[in-house]
Amino acid sequence: MDEIDYTCTFDYLGEQLKKGRMRLTDHKRSHTHSLQVAVDDRQLPFINDQATTPLLADLIDIAVAVHMADRLSKNDGDMPRRILLRIPIRAPEIRDRLSIHKKLQEILYWFTEDHWTFEFTPHSKLGRSAEINNPLPLFQDTLTPTRVVLWSGGLDSFAGIYQLLLKEDTTHYMLFGTGSNNIISSAQRRTAAPIERLFPQRTELVQLPFHLEDKSGDVKKSSYARSRGFVFMLLGAVCACQAGKNTLYICENGIGAINLPFVNQRSG
Amino acid sequence: MPDGDIVHEGLGRRYQEAYKQVCDGQFGGKDLARKVMSAVYKDIQQAGDPIIQFLQKAGEQSQQILNRRMFEEIDWQKEAAQIDRLAQSIYANKRFKTLAVEACKEQIQDLRYGGNTSNCYIDLLQKYMWNTYSAQFAEKVPLTPSHYQEVNGEFVGERLALMKPYVQGQLQDYAKQVYNQGTVAQLPHRRSTIKRNYNADTDLSTVGA
């Protein structure tokens, strides 16, 4: 399967739109668009005052790049999209291992049923500020048990965290939200507020927003975003690692989170 | 067909006429099956040969399972994962590919619980075609707030049950044709109907023979 429908080439992903740039090539129509992209990971926790490692910064880039490519590659009916992603990668253990490419292809096929190909190039630019600057050595409460839980802002996560908080009255929860638009980000904040009121100082909202700007306004977006479960979980896993945890809690329905199939009449 | 002829929002355009006939109540099971199958054939034809080639490979895998299972323990999860890997490598309509994959996994389940078949590939073709009929038509028909001509759901259910054996029969023939030809490029053969010209000199005893 050598043909490609879309190529997304990321030059750099900064925390501001003016720094980040990507190119989208629609091979069927022979069009190339240049767009601005940004990911703001400054809110991620810093356990032991450590800056984001190259590996975790790469995982953020991969998640955001997948999200952007998924949004920008328009579907052609029920035919799969063949998407090539070119991403600069810092950690050689990701860049040079074919098994990583294969795993990514397989998991994204599971989520989207599209054909994804990855080309990882060496990352030559300076990283984002979260990678470069060590945070201020503020007091960190490492004694209270903390869990990282995905926070979509929807009813499933709301009900899930409510149950968890009721059940274990000493655990602190870090609610991890992401979002590519202000509506989602604001919904996450709105739904986190009553939880904070009901269980004071037991939760903390951490958001990792990312942005896309198409100045030309010519690029049509796909409304499906079938990769959203993958993107959300990968970024949540990064947040958990940054918080020194190896478990990510997910209170979402299986269809949305891990792409469980619908019944026959909704297949595909 | 103009938009005005869409009588069931959930059904594809080429299934509207068959649905109307189901609700009309005039036609028998055989005619209803013939009508809906012409739409199913076109869907399968449009989904294309990559799916048929995938089914052929999956059929070979099942045939091997059938031969091995008497003598060794089969890792059923591994076999199902192998189907997913096979499917990943083909470029085909997502919806129909999913139906084909489901057919393969159904067959693996059948084999796991002692099922037998003389030809795994033909059986897979039939399962895929049946899944297409179910997903594109039979399972969608009930999904409407009210039926055409205000008939009730029970009546529609009975009509679907009436046509089911004929649909299965036609799918069986079609599966054999695809097996022999290796392609869905051609729609099923139909029996030729010989038109006879009658005139004043025709021997009346031969009419209708």
Rg of chain A, Å, rounded: 19 Å
In terms of per-residue confidence, which ranges of chain B show pLDDT below 50 for 5 or more consecutive residues? none
- What is the helix content of chain B? 55-70%
Count interface residues per chain for the largest interface. Answer: A-B, 18 and 18 residues
SSE pattern of chain B: HHHHHHH
**Total number of beta strands of chain B:** 0
Main sheet makeup of chain A: 9 strands, mixed
Number of helices of chain B: 7
Helix and strand string of chain A, N-terminal first? EEEHEHHEHEHEHEHEH
Describe it for me?
The complex is a heterodimer of chains A (268) and B (209). Chain A is α/β, with parallel strands linked by helices and 268 residues long. Chain A folds into 2 domains: 6-132, no CATH class; 146-264, HUPs (Rossmann fold, 3-Layer(aba) Sandwich), CATH 3.40.50. Helix content of chain A is 34%, strand content 24%. Chain A has 8 helices and 9 strands. A 9-stranded mixed beta sheet of chain A has the order 5-4-1-2-3-8-7-6-9, sandwiched between helices. In chain A, helix 1 (54-72) packs antiparallel against helix 7 (228-242). Residues 263-268 of chain A have low confidence and may be disordered. Chain B has one domain. Chain B has helices spanning 16-24, 29-47, 49-68, 76-88, 94-112, 120-138, 153-181. Chain B is globular, with a radius of gyration of 21 Å. The A-B interface holds A 1, 3, 77-80, 82, 105-106, 109, 113, 115, 261, 263-265, 267-268 and B 88-89, 91-99, 102, 131, 134-135, 139-140, 143.
